[in-house]
Design a protein that fits this description.
The chain has 226 residues and is of the alpha/beta class. The protein folds into two domains: 143 residues, HAD superfamily/HAD-like (Rossmann fold); 59 residues, DNA polymerase, domain 1 (Orthogonal Bundle), CATH 1.10.150. The protein contains nine helices and six strands. Strands 3-2-1-4-5-6 form a six-stranded parallel β-sheet, sandwiched between helices. Strand 2, helix 6 and strand 3 form a beta-alpha-beta unit. It is globular, with a radius of gyration of 17 Å.
Length: 226
């Protein structure tokens, strides 16, 4: 098992790392597909194809009409995303426990920034993070390291293995590796053969398991945090 340093910062992905978003994402993509008369996705297709930001993925999906598609998607998402907003098990308790430590917390998501920050506000989580960086906030979106650099701006920290990047998808692990951070995969499913160009430093199944890992590396959160 790879040795990981005690983190000075934790940069979290948002969707399906801290909040359960798959059903909302599926409904929104299918609303966009219906607008264009395209076949809809089932959940397995949604999980397989969604990771990149709209500005990175929509030109290939919708061609010259990608900006129209982005507008349709955003309107459909805005109408339902707060109704579907649900923290993943243990996420709220973990963030609350971490907020009492010296570890800096941030978010880097490929969800558009205004949606991301509104969701954090509704959940009462905004104050836990030094910055919530969404798609189009930085010069380039995840997996580009620019988004992580923006997330840590003003903290005095530079990109290094003492910054853990925690997420559920290939784009998160790639972003961590490109940024020189420690990549941590958080999801119930184990890595698939050949899924990642570089293996995650650690794999945890959920937020409770992440909390246990943080206790293991001497982050001072109470063992009963969950």
């Amino acid at each position: 098992m790879q040795v990981v340093p005690r983190p000075r910062a934790l940069v979290f992905d948002w969707d399906n790392t801290l909040v359960d978003s798959w059903l909302c994402i599926q409904h929104t993509y299918n609303a966009t597909f219906r607008h264009f008369g395209l076949p809809e996705w089932d959940m397995s297709q949604t999980r397989a194809h969604v990771a990149a930001s709209l500005r990175d993925s929509f030109p290939a999906m919708f061609g010259a009409r990608w900006q129209e598609a982005a507008e349709v998607f955003s309107a459909a998402f805005a109408a339902i995303h707060l109704d579907h907003l649900a923290p993943l098990p243990g996420a709220a308790a973990l963030l609350e426990a971490l907020a009492a430590t010296d570890v800096i917390l941030a978010v880097v998501s490929n969800k558009r920034g205004h949606f991301l920050r509104r969701e954090a506000e509704v959940l009462g989580w905004s104050d836990h993070f030094v910055r919530l960086v969404g798609a189009e906030d930085a010069p380039a979106d995840k997996p580009d390291p620019a988004a992580v650099t923006l997330a840590l701006a003003g903290t005095g920290l530079s990109l290094s293995p003492e910054v853990w990047f925690i997420g559920d998808a290939t784009v998160d692990i790639e972003c961590a590796v490109r940024a020189g951070c420690t990549p941590v995969l958080l999801r119930p499913e184990p890595p698939r053969p050949g899924e990642f160009p570089a293996a995650p430093a650690r794999v945890v199944t959920d937020c409770r398991a992440l909390g246990a890992l943080l206790v293991e590396v001497a982050v001072p959160i109470a063992p009963e945090w969950c």
